[in-house]
Design a protein that fits this description.
alpha+beta; binds dinuclear copper ion; 318 residues; five-stranded mixed beta sheet
Length: 318
Amino acid sequence: MGPWPNDPLGPQARSSAEIYWIMFVAAIVVLAIVDGGLIYAGIKFRDRPGHSAKQFHGHNVLELLWTVIPTIMVISFSVLSFERLNIMNDTTNAGMTVNVQGQQWTWLMSYPKEDRFKLNDGTYLQAAQELHIPVNMKVRIALSSKDVIHSFWVPNIGGKKDAVPGRNTDLWIQADKPGTYKGQCFEFCGTGHADMLITLVAQTPDDYATWLKGALVEANRGTDPATKKGRETFLSLACVGCHTVQGTVAAGKVGPELTHIASKKTGIAGGAGGPVNEENLTKWIKNPPAVKPGTLMPNLNLSDEQIHDIVQWLLTLK
Ligand code: CUA
C-alpha cells in the first residue's frame, strides 16, 4: 500500500492538507450545530397533544450570531488560503529547475543545462514520465504544453498546476523522504490521458548521484556519430508510442521495453524472431507480421536506410 492520497510528504502538500483539514473540521462543527439545532427544535417545539406549534418572527441575538460567525469563518478561510497560496506559488530560491512539457500523451522531463546533466553530444539529459529529484530540495518545475491542456500533479508531494499551450507556468515540489511517488495528468487531454503518469523519485544525494551516473550512461548510448542517426530516427517515429527506452523520451507501454534489447536472451518477439542480431532485427522491423503472425507490431513501411540506422542503434542498447 502506498501512502494515502491525503498524506502529505512534502511542505507543498502539507500546506494544502492543512487548509483542507481546517475547513473539513470547521464544516463538521457547523454541520453538527446546524443539524443538531434543527433536530432539537423539531422535536422540542413540534405540534403535539398538549402543545401547539407557534410561528415566531425575528430574534435579534440569533440573527446576529448566524451572520457574524459565518462571516468570521469565511474571512478566516480566505486569509489562510491566500497565505498558503503565496507559499505554494513562491518558486524563488529553488535548488534546481526542471522543464516539464506535457504532450499527448507523455511528460517530457528536461534536466537543467548544468554540466552534471550534459551528454557526450552536447545536449542535456531528458527523460519521459519519470522525474528524479534530490530529497529535501526545493525543485522548481517549469511547465509547458506542446498541444492541449494537461495538468501536473503528484498528490503526496503536492502542487497541481495546468500545463497550458502557449503559456509558461511553474510550481515547486519538495519531498521529505526518499521514495517513489505516483502522479497523474489531471486534465482530460484525449484518449491517452490515463497513460500520462508521472513517477517522481526522490533520492538522497548519494543515490541521486548514482542514478545520474547510470542515466547518463544510458542516455549516451547512441550519441556517437555512427548510431546517432538511428536513435533520432527511432525517436521521430511511431516507435516511441509503444516502446520504452530508458535514457530517451520513448516511454510507450504497449510493446516490450527496449532499454537493453541488445542483451536480451529470449530473442526478438519472445523468440519468434530468433536471437537479437543485425540480420534478425532487420528482418523483424521490415515486416513484423511476416516473422510472427498476429504480432501487435505493425509493418511501418520504413526505408532500408531507416531500418539500417535503427538496427545499428538498437544493437548498442546492451
Ligand atoms: Cu495529459 Cu491528461
